[in-house]
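Sequence design from tokenized structure. All designs in this work follow the same two-part layout: the structure record, then the generated sequence. An example of the structure record is given first.
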């Protein structure tokens, strides 16, 4: 009975020993093994065998990219302005042995170096330039951390400034400056609008005046063309009438018709003169009206040659 109990105890001890010999390392992790107090090996992901009591897991490191929040700190700029800056950095353990023995606490070392580099960069710039040069400052801090963290088994991937907080007095002054700048831009925009408005109105008046003057010019040209056309038509009608009269004179009986017409007009002219005023004009010899008619006919005969020649020229 006692033998069986001893066997059970020994089996249990063996099971516990075997259980302690097996070590399972998670993915993206590294375990640093010390044997009798000295570094022995670095275990990567998977099932590994260690010797209990002799070996122990001294350090456990994650090989993932780890964000680390850098506590806010007060920095003094080149123009002696105190600003509070906080940031965040991302690092990754690349060598588990160096991360374990290179420094007592690589996270604190990285944070302090980041703060020191940030204060140095802030002191080189004035406040306005500090707010503009975030990207440049981030790259400078990462470069300084990379140079020092190689012996720590850590790779600093990037650093980002989260916030820059100036004092309340500076914030109020900046707000006033922003307000004044916005008012300035608004006034400039308003004046530009008024200027453009006046330009547009003047341009519109100019175009309207040009249109009116062109309208007057076109109307005068049209009137002149109408008068010229009217004169031309009257001249053509007169020439045509003269040609018809000349042709009528040369036809048989034409001269007699002209003589009759002239006699009628001659007699009618004396009648109109009598009607036009109170003075009565009569021929010297009222009994001899045929003499008056003969005188008019002699005038027609004298001008017959001239009328015929003029009609020939008009043709």
């Amino acid at each position: 009975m006692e033998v069986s109990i001893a066997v059970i105890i020994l089996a249990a001890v063996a099971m516990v020993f075997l259980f302690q010999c097996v070590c399972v390392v998670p993915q993206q992790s590294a375990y640093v093994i010390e044997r009798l107090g000295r570094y022995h090996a670095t275990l990567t992901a998977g099932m590994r065998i260690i010797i209990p009591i002799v070996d122990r897991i001294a350090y456990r490191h994650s090989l993932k990219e780890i964000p680390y929040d850098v506590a806010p700190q007060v920095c003094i700029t080149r123009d002696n302005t105190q600003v509070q800056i906080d940031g965040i950095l991302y690092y990754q353990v690349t060598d588990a042995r160096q991360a374990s023995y290179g420094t007592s606490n690589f996270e604190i070392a990285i944070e302090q170096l980041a703060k020191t580099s940030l204060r140095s960069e802030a002191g080189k710039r004035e406040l306005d330039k500090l707010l503009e040069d975030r990207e440049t400052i981030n790259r400078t801090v990462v470069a300084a951390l990379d140079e020092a963290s190689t012996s720590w088994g850590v790779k600093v991937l990037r650093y980002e400034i989260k916030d820059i907080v100036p004092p309340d007095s500076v914030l109020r002054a900046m707000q006033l400056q922003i307000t004044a700048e916005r008012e300035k831009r608004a006034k400039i925009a308003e004046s530009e609008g008024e200027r453009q408005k006046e330009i547009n109105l003047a341009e519109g008046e100019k175009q309207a005046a040009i249109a009116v003057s062109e309208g007057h010019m076109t109307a005068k040209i049209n009137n002149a063309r109408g008068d010229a056309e009217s004169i031309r038509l009257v001249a053509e009608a007169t020439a045509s009438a003269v040609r018809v009269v000349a042709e009528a004179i040369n036809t048989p009986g034409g001269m007699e018709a002209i003589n009759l017409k002239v006699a009628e007009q001659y007699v009618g002219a004396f009648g109109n003169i009598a009607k036009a005023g109170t003075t009565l004009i009569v021929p010297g010899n009222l009994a001899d009206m045929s003499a008056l008619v003969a005188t008019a006919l002699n005038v027609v005969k004298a001008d017959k040659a001239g009328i015929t020649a003029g009609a020939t020229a008009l043709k």
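Residues 255 and 261 are 10 Å apart (CA to CA). We note this feature because it recurs in several other targets discussed in the main text.
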